[in-house]
Structures
1.
Amino acid sequence: MSKLGGGPEFDLIRSFLADAPPLHSSVRVGPGDDCTIIGNLAISTDASVEGVHFRRDWLDAFAIGWRASAAALSDLAAVAAEPIGVMVSLALPEPDRADFARNVMRGVAECVKSFGGSLLGGDTTSAPVLVIDVAVVGRVVDPVLRNGARAGDEIWVTGRLGGAAAAISCLQNNDSPNAAALERYATPRPRTREALWLKARVEVHAMIDLSDGLFGDVSHIAAASGCAIEIDSELLPVDRQSGATYEHAVAGGDDYELCFAAAPGAIEALREEFERSFGIEVTRIGAVRGGEGVHERRADGSVAPVTLRGYQHFRD
Amino acid sequence: MSKLGGGPEFDLIRSFLADAPPLHSSVRVGPGDDCTIIGNLAISTDASVEGVHFRRDWLDAFAIGWRASAAALSDLAAVAAEPIGVMVSLALPEPDRADFARNVMRGVAECVKSFGGSLLGGDTTSAPVLVIDVAVVGRVVDPVLRNGARAGDEIWVTGRLGGAAAAISCLQNNDSPNAAALERYATPRPRTREALWLKARVEVHAMIDLSDGLFGDVSHIAAASGCAIEIDSELLPVDRQSGATYEHAVAGGDDYELCFAAAPGAIEALREEFERSFGIEVTRIGAVRGGEGVHERRADGSVAPVTLRGYQHFRD
């Protein structure tokens, strides 16, 4: 498996894998990347739990379905796979098992329709709280993994960061997020087309989607690639329009932007065309160095290792 | 999609699919069968929820993991696919996120090791109750679907029926199930090898695994194949050793045996070898006729349509 970054979540996953039987010969990429890859198919699952990833007074049924699907599709984008579809396990309280469930699944269907793929199957059952687990399947011949970054590469991100975290901060304080922030949280847009576009034009050495927070996610690229990553705090595209702070941008998750490593100059040559094609920015935020871990270059030129902390999901 | 049998669960799934975008061209078998089939891969998901599919005073952590994996692997067996592995989404209360979670995953790993495949990935998150959703991936070149039964075929089942339901009945009444019944419920054995063995020797026209109850599950074969299925009540292999009743055998689920249609005489010729190879029976229980729905032939020779009712999961 690819080496994962630090943190208790990943210690737990490492302990699970210690007990697992060896991989089947058809498995090209096993646990530890954004997707498992078998033959030309990329597969991933992503579970969202009421009270952990969302609250019903924050998101309506449609957004719950959209957001869960977008999170799963984002894992496909991270390896530059083309979506084929999703399978949805929907567990929810008995009284919700008609209109509410149907609206959740409309959100799933709309999201999948927007980014490619269909509804491939699923399962519905009752449960005390709503849990939606989306398994996503895509086609990929030559996947971009987390382990290909090399010293000298540049680190880039799509879009702007921290908007979803800014929305969650507001909601937790019983404030109303602005429309831009709420959209970032409720109906995030997986960067499916952006990933395929980049992959078709340039050799992307390593890529991940930003679901747990920039510093935590980037640490997986560093660990898998056996290198250090330096993020330049001055360069970060903080999503100010959504009210995001620097803290939201580096530690908040749920933006589902892409972060990737590429050779010096390779992306700059495409930047304008990318931004014209997709209406979002692509920004160089750092570089790959020898060593290990994630380091932050501050405005005063000092560089310090980052104490990893991903975005902590709120608790009820 | 394959036509599904009746019932509110399936009405809900039909409503979800009505909103879904068209299938990607690589999808050979879409929703409505035991697995979705894309290229040579069969994929399915199966969610188990605490308080719905199991209770913690009934099953220990190991059995919770085993049972959830067995249920998912059983979907692969139903299309005669060879397991490649499982991806597990595990949502559970915060205090359980160390030893308990690890024991659940040991159950997953042991089950997968016993029937082929590995742990391909997954996701862990907190939740108010334990939810384990297992996505399973297998290899299949020539799948057995639900839609190939034809008038004149015989209907067969592997093993004996009703043991898991007998265990659940006891547990619900605060009685202790006998060891045989408890084993059937807690650590069911997906009929992976049996399915591959049969498929290699005889043309199996249609197959399903028995997860919701014989009558309900058989109704899906009837609906998908556009035929009627007659079950002979005298022939049913009721799992008396587990204390199962006829009612448990026809309406109880969770046995994860296989039910399939084959040409007259085809299975009888292999029956002894099958039973010697696997140590379980294979029993002819009925026949495929023209018409629709499921019909029950009683001891007195009368035949009556079955009012469909799958196994109703208990509620807290």
2.
Amino acid sequence: MVLNPVTGAFLDGLRATLPETCFRPIAPRYLSEPRGFYAGQAGCLLLPSSAGEVALILRHCNAARVGVVPYGGGTGLVGGQVMPKGAPAPVVLSLERLDSIEKPDLQDNTLVVGAGAILADVQAVAAAAARLFPLSLASEGSCRIGGNLASNAGGVQVLRYGNARALCLGLEAVLPEGRIWQGLKRLRKDNTGYDLRDLLIGSEGTLGVITRAVLRLFPQPEQHLTAFLQIRDPRAAIDLLARCQARFGGLVSAFELIDRTGFEFLQETLPSLRRPFAAPGKWMVLLEIGAGTDFPAQTVLESVLEAAFDAGLMHDAVIAQSEAQREAFWAVRERIPEANRLIGAISSHDISVPLGQLPEMIRKGAGVVARFGDLRVNCFGHVGDGNLHYNVYPPKGAHRADFSHLRDDIKRAIHDLVDTLGGSFSAEHGIGRLKRDDLSRYGDPAKLAAMRAIKTALDPNGIMNPGVIFAPS
Amino acid sequence: MVLNPVTGAFLDGLRATLPETCFRPIAPRYLSEPRGFYAGQAGCLLLPSSAGEVALILRHCNAARVGVVPYGGGTGLVGGQVMPKGAPAPVVLSLERLDSIEKPDLQDNTLVVGAGAILADVQAVAAAAARLFPLSLASEGSCRIGGNLASNAGGVQVLRYGNARALCLGLEAVLPEGRIWQGLKRLRKDNTGYDLRDLLIGSEGTLGVITRAVLRLFPQPEQHLTAFLQIRDPRAAIDLLARCQARFGGLVSAFELIDRTGFEFLQETLPSLRRPFAAPGKWMVLLEIGAGTDFPAQTVLESVLEAAFDAGLMHDAVIAQSEAQREAFWAVRERIPEANRLIGAISSHDISVPLGQLPEMIRKGAGVVARFGDLRVNCFGHVGDGNLHYNVYPPKGAHRADFSHLRDDIKRAIHDLVDTLGGSFSAEHGIGRLKRDDLSRYGDPAKLAAMRAIKTALDPNGIMNPGVIFAPS
């Protein structure tokens, strides 16, 4: 399928059918992505305000064989939101004007939002109605729901509430040939045909454009119990998580593993940030329980921790005694990615492994990295999900540019290890343009063939986000 | 696509590649289904013992253009498991020999099972390892995991744990052209391409054959609190559920609405069954909380019920004081379907509506049914999921055969109502052969077109469960 670039005649045709408000000169932010791996290009920027306008655009692009790059908050980490130079100039389709957030339905515990709604705004609308929308991640102040769904975003509360896929009941979406799927159902059970919703979620804009969604809300836990622990080693983290889950049922909402290297990076780059331990050990856990006030959560947690202390699983713990202290604990976790960026990774990996393999991953990963020299590893993540952000850095004082020739080999070695452990080379971030080669290398051939068949069936002209997931043809 | 019947030459070809143990004369049970709507036919019965053998069979069927009907426990309620006479005689492919259940992985909380494993056996293996596999439904003694996944089964604990789709982490499956997808991942987060797992789950054997699955396990709640309530009306049930969820967090595992008609049917057909109320009111709720022993569950429940009593939401409650009493409560709920069968419905409906619309559904539904005469409605179901089994019966003493001419019109009228309320005409049971016409009538046209495109892409010869979901071509 050879695509055409946006031309004057193409734009004239669009102007004849779309309101003038859909057109805006393209600004640099639409052509860049957070890690600076890709510089984008575009033939035009379109900002539709309804599914009907999106449908008009896709029909027009289909007729002209022009590529479409859907654009949400621009925070994706795999280059799914930019079309690199070299390909025919595409339409960049920003969903930012589709930013409505309806009134929460408190009986259904649902909330209907436009794809352009910013995640933090959605959280705030839910909170104002005494409800929780649990999707929570570092970029929540600027990422948009459409992008969260297109990439099946994860974050810190997946352990209890699931990923973006589990938080969405229904979708309105425009399919590649311009048909609108009215799938804004708010049902907990609906077995009427193939699961198109879950197919579009996580398809990274290659199978259509999500325009609205019905999201699930939850009761706000009346109390939060947040603790920072110093633990023996990663295996102790798994044991401790199991103990917490057994005593707290499904009420453990976060269980984050943090490496001392993370603390050192914070000290180095953000020295004014308060840290819970003066002399941190090698491994820490930040855990949070959300419960009703009837639950004697602090007493139970103290008893779990006492038993864990006696069993040698941990040697120190601080339980937040105020909301301010809770926020300070979370600030440590949430600013580690910023510290990481300031240090500058040689190679970053967003991996998951079966929970029981997590200690093995950390142990063997250290061996793999050591083969490349005296490098530093900062590995932190969501223990309950088996998800580690496993990042490799130059020695202290050195600059990553001097090690960039190692990036591909390090990445390959880490991903090979993950693969032998039955894991995933992309737990949260998706494939985009960055991990296409990993997908062909590690993906199951039968699944890849089925994916290609589905892509061709739904997008026969290949206009949707060309070059994402599949190599451009 | 015109399919061919199984012939002697076709069978000779199969015998040359498959072990003799895969062949067995077909018994009547493979050709019937629980409601007796369809009488099946088959060209042969095959019982493969591995994904490799399934792949051989599908390749052979593809080459000869012979249809394949996958067969699990045979308990499906929409005729998905039988090929009615008139069509070319198909292969019936029973997964019963693929019934392995591995040792539970207690760190991952996962369990790998073959598609032929019986649900109750899976539950038992989990329980023996002090874990819970929460899928629970009336036919659990004979339904098989492959069928549960193919139909995305629901049941009584969806409220807390989700449906079959939410309980499965990975699949091994044979795609229609005979490729084996090795997707037995046991990962909580894995964003590497399209969600083929959730597409196959719920596709009712039309997109391939599931051969193995990785299931999620949960900690066993240390205590169960089970109560039978007499409530004011269906709206009170919704209010009460919200109060329970606010106080118990995510620990409410079942919340079943029961109509007095259900009690009357039990009295009529199974008079020896113990019932919790001598003089039941019109509406009852059976609720269950599963919690750790640290949670003062009984005290909290008593306080919730006291407040609900004061608010006029309910007027009587019995909390089970022993495991025997808990089982007796559940026996009432679980034997209602049996009583229903003994009475004999004119028309049964497995519907869901948005939670807030449930009272409206019940109120307007009564009006719809009254138009057809003095009929009885037994409506019971899973309040938290907005899912009602809404069944219509002849007047006491009359026989359903005398009313069968009304079936189609009643069904249409009820489904029309459900549709105007934003609901689903098949919450749990799927489409099969029984609800194909409903799907074309109520389904979204863009979704239907996408489904057809996916079906053609993955099964170009249309051999997989022909006539299920889509009309035979």
